[in-house]
Amino acid sequence: MSKLLFIQTLGCAMNVRDSEHIIAELKSKEDYALTDDIKKADLILINTCSVREKPVNKLFSEIGSFEKVKKDGAKIGVLGCTASHLGDEIFKRAPYVDFVLGARNTSKISKAVNTPKFISTDINYDDSEYAFGDFRTSKYKAFVNIMIGCDKKCSYCIVPQTRGDEISIPANLILKEVEKSVNSGAKEIFLLGQNVNNYGRRFSNSHEKIDFSDLLVKISDVKGVERIRFTSPHPLHMDDKFLDVFVNNDKICKSMHMPLQSGSTRVLKAMRRGYTKEWFLDRALKLREMCPDVSISTDIIVAYPGESDEDFLDTMDVLEKVRFEQIFSFKFSPRPLTPAANLPMIDDEIASRRLSTLQNRHTQILDEITQKELGKVHRVYFEELRDGFQVAGRSFNNFMVSVKGSEELLGKTLDVKITNPKRMVLYGEIVS
Ligand code: 5AD
Ligand code: SF4
């Protein structure tokens, strides 16, 4: 009988994909099967995130609770970005942990489970060409890594310390993975990287010159690919060629993540983002003009050290001008090993006030956007059962759309007329 694996994944889509790789390895090489019941598990894994302080604190409370409920002899492993960044401090703070495997060391999972107190957190380790087995969380969409690591040195960000330098995965391997995914039923391909539109700057082998726009075109030519999404692009690298391919290739879903971080050119400079408020606005508004149906999402940090009221108003100004369909917003959180780690912090009350001003205004904008969806028809790829009698999927421009229905809709792409638009979900009826 197989041994049982319980795995919890925190953080971003990259972590979701790393967990899939780990599950694939443990299934094929170590004969594990997945379980949702932690008490029955022989191996308990947590794939961690260290982007802000909160998820790091969560790690120690989570593994403490694992230790209490685990069955005798079950192993606990800590993976991912916090494993990279804390290393053997994890053993010191939680001696019952059996192994620690950093985000750039996923391919060593078999060794980790078989070696007492194994630790590997090398951020220079290159597993960009490592061939993983098959495991996908969703039958309908496939995450495909196109690069590992990140070469940007944003002053607030810990990722270069946890995932190392940027290496692009050779295009032939990516295309093979895309073909494999399509052949096993995924119509949607979700490309992953810290900085996807910087693809092609450095490969682990000598490789023909190819940039992200060229890669998108190659992927769109693979038979069976119906939808392509990607995350995260960087506003700095949104050149005209990229916008042109994005807008005019009809397999590329019309939703763009444009991580703003701050609307103030002064703060952007301090953050080392490499673009100005004007550049960001130019790109976002050009995109809206070229592609009126596009959804634009963003990440915003408020109260970066030194952010004045005026700087914050610049962020609010960009919000008004771009009217993002979705924002992910955070108070600045100082991260160890980053240039901004020891800068004087903005008073927390001010930070909280700015965050709620931003979020409240965005909610109003979103309500206005949502109401305009009433009566529109969206092409929806159904991929998820909800509450027993609803089936949901994404519109081409990334709205979550839900209709009455059951399993037989899963995997189908159908036109839906929106009859009851809500902030998070547009409810509708199938029209074809
Ligand atoms: N503090 C707050 N938010 C951060 N992010 C990254 N680092 C920090 C930090 N130190 C946010 C950024 C990034 C998102 C994934 O997390 O907005 O785009
Ligand atoms: Fe993903 Fe960044 Fe969190 Fe690592 S630190 S899991 S790269 S969001």
Automatic annotation (TrEMBL):
[4Fe-4S] cluster 1 binds at residues 12, 49, 81. GO terms for molecular function: 4 iron, 4 sulfur cluster binding; metal ion binding; tRNA-2-methylthio-N(6)-dimethylallyladenosine(37) synthase activity. InterPro entries: Elp3/MiaA/NifB-like_rSAM, Methylthiotransferase, Methylthiotransferase_CS, Methylthiotransferase_N, Methylthiotransferase_N_sf, MiaB_methiolase, rSAM, rSAM_horseshoe. PANTHER family: CDK5 REGULATORY SUBUNIT-ASSOCIATED PROTEIN 1, MITOCHONDRIAL TRNA METHYLTHIOTRANSFERASE CDK5RAP1. Catalyzes the methylthiolation of N6-(dimethylallyl)adenosine (i(6)A), leading to the formation of 2-methylthio-N6-(dimethylallyl)adenosine (ms(2)i(6)A) at position 37 in tRNAs that read codons beginning with uridine. It catalyses: N(6)-dimethylallyladenosine(37) in tRNA + (sulfur carrier)-SH + AH2 + 2 S-adenosyl-L-methionine = 2-methylsulfanyl-N(6)-dimethylallyladenosine(37) in tRNA + (sulfur carrier)-H + 5'-deoxyadenosine + L-methionine + A + S-adenosyl-L-homocysteine + 2 H(+). Belongs to the methylthiotransferase family. MiaB subfamily. It is found in: Cytoplasm. Keywords: 4Fe-4S, Cytoplasm, Iron, Iron-sulfur, Metal-binding, S-adenosyl-L-methionine, Transferase, tRNA processing. Its cofactor is [4Fe-4S] cluster. Residues 371-432 form the TRAM domain. This is tRNA-2-methylthio-N(6)-dimethylallyladenosine synthase. Binds 2 [4Fe-4S] clusters. One cluster is coordinated with 3 cysteines and an exchangeable S-adenosyl-L-methionine. [4Fe-4S] cluster 2 binds at residues 150, 154, 157. Residues 136-368 form the Radical SAM core domain. It is an enzyme of class 2 (transferase). PROSITE patterns: MTTASE_N, MTTASE_RADICAL, RADICAL_SAM, TRAM. Its EC number is 2.8.4.3. Residues 3-118 form the MTTase N-terminal domain. Its main location: cytoplasm. Monomer. GO terms for cellular component: cytosol. Gene3D superfamilies: Methylthiotransferase, N-terminal domain, tm_1862 like domain.
